[in-house]
Design brief:
By secondary structure, the protein is mainly alpha-helical. The protein is 52% helix and 7% strand. It has a three-stranded antiparallel beta sheet. Strands 4-5-6 form a three-stranded antiparallel beta sheet.
């Protein structure tokens, strides 16, 4: 529920407030992860990670993800109210659906172990032990912050989809920003458009009732003006020397920058799809839900004996793609795959 102060804010102010809250959650998670990293035994990195540090790091990031996702419904409702509208969601965001897995679908423990590997490889290559530990920590902090941010963004996207009066969102950028974000700043997207992001991306959704897909929202962030406000050195750093020169010569920023982010995929439905294994073990919520459906349809006995999970648990972005603009279908799939209840 919006506070009295929030109820008087504009949609843009609410988006900025939401961004600040998300950034603080990322910082809290990163601080906790950094403290845990110091507890690693340099003489036995893998052993100390597996026995103590690793599980606590995974727990810290999962808690950060849950916290980031928890305010999405309230945020969307507050923005709708500021825009003189109301939301009538088809369901509430299930926070558990956004916690405990990485944005690319893999388990968190698998992703967050990578900095240990990086550290060991650096030591093996002859790097000073302290420098190697710092290299691993830097990688871990980036991962932790990115996973918390992605959980918040995915939950907001799901809340937008579940709210039929919200037709899309405007991408809000928070400078300083990279070239990939700048070309998308202020752009209007439909409710089923996946949020393109990269590690440490600070951008957030601003829900909107009336949008024109692909249009730059009137009065929103002006990337061209931002480019002109930068020094030549900063322009070159963000867009590369050649790219910045092309923009100064009159090329559009979007023609110079191509924002893409690859995702983990698997084969299903006769195509490559983005999926996650989180929740698909025998004790997982998605596994149990699919087994219950199989029992209800008479495909397996009431005991569930013989059930085999053959359906991948799709990520929200893939659901939007497969629903092909059909909102009812998107909501049905979001419910089936454990993102709304």
């Amino acid at each position: 529920m919006a506070t009295p102060t929030e109820s008087r804010m504009s949609a843009a102010e609410l988006a900025q407030t939401y961004y600040v809250a998300q950034a603080r959650q990322q910082r809290r998670t990163a601080d906790r992860v950094q403290a845990l990293w110091r507890e690693l035994d340099r003489r036995d990195l893998t052993g100390s990670w597996e026995s103590l540090v690793g599980p606590e790091v995974v727990r810290a990031v999962a808690l950060g993800q849950a916290a980031a996702a928890s305010g999405s419904d309230e945020y969307v409702a507050a923005v709708a109210a500021a825009d003189d509208g109301r939301v009538a969601p088809a369901g509430r965001v299930l926070v558990s659906g956004f916690s405990g897995r990485a944005a690319d679908g893999r388990p968190l423990d698998s992703l967050l172990y990578l900095p240990v590997i990086t550290t060991k490889e650096a030591i093996g290559a002859g790097l000073d032990e302290t420098e190697a530990m710092l290299r691993g920590l830097t990688q871990l902090l980036k991962m932790a912050a990115s996973e918390v941010a992605d959980a918040g963004r995915q939950a907001t996207g799901v809340s937008i989809t579940a709210s039929r009066t919200i037709n899309g969102y405007i991408r809000v950028v928070n400078p300083p920003a990279c070239a990939r974000c700048l070309i998308l700043a202020g752009k209007e997207f439909g409710w089923n458009a996946g949020f393109q992001r990269h590690p440490r991306c600070d951008c957030v959704h601003m829900p909107a009732r009336l949008i024109k897909r692909g249009r730059h929202h009137p009065g929103a962030f002006d990337s061209a003006a931002y480019f002109r406000s930068l020094s030549t050195a900063e322009q070159n750093r963000i867009f590369t020397i050649a790219g910045a020169q092309a923009i100064r010569d009159g090329a559009s920023i979007s023609s110079v920058v191509n924002a893409r982010r690859g995702m983990y995929t698997t084969t299903a439905y006769g195509r490559r799809v983005a999926a996650t294994r989180e929740g698909t073990t025998r004790r997982g919520a998605f596994y149990r839900s699919e087994r219950a459906q199989a029992i209800a349809r008479g495909r397996v006995p009431a005991s569930g004996r013989g059930f085999r999970l053959r359906t991948p648990r799709l990520l929200p972005e893939e659901i939007y793609e497969l629903s092909a603009g059909n909102r009812d279908e998107a909501i049905r799939m979001l419910r089936r795959f454990g993102y709304i209840g």
